[in-house]
Amino acid sequence: MKVMKTKKCKTCELRKSLLDNFYWNSVKVVYENQCKSCRLKKMKKKQRTDYDSIKERKRHLKRKENGEFVGNWQKWKAKFPEKYKARYQLRNAVKSGKIKKDKCVISKDCNGRLEAHHEDYNKPLEVIWFCQKHHTLHHYPIPLDKLTDKEKGQDE
């Protein structure tokens, strides 16, 4: 005789079979405290409250005269139109194949994501390719007194 294992749901307090009604954690075999139907209801409720909180946050954003929302991207685009134009032109050139992404200028062994650096935004297709780490260091260099001798290249 096969015995079906059951578990009591902490939400609806009904006893239900483990296999049909409970999720289990794949890392270790521990069943959730809620049955599938109660968990689904909880997730849907959470999605609705998250949606409401997003709408609430949007209300606090500044509005243009025509009533549209102005988010961070739009603010940045309005503040730096030449940067936006240069990035847009470069992105299109890379997509079309006119420009190929090169390796990092600092070290060819870098495996990080490549980023383009514009020295002059009036020349949008003239860029220096850095990995993410070296691009950050280019903009925010570490003072020499904070580097170790090994990082300075002065091996003893």
Describe what you observe in this structure.
With 156 residues, this protein is an alpha+beta fold. It has two domains: 6-59, no CATH class; 72-146, no CATH class. The chain is 41% helix and 15% strand. The protein has six helices and six strands. The chain has helices at 18-21, 36-59, 72-79, 81-96, 132-139, 149-152; strands spanning 6-8, 15-17, 22-24, 31-35, 114-118, 127-131. The strands form three sheets. The protein has a two-stranded antiparallel sheet with strand order 1-2. Strands 3-4 form a two-stranded antiparallel ribbon. Strands 5-6 form a two-stranded antiparallel sheet. The longest helix is centred in the first third of the chain and has 24 residues, at 36-59. The chain is elongated, with a radius of gyration of 27 Å. The N and C termini lie far apart (77 Å). 6% of the residues are buried. The mean pLDDT is 78.
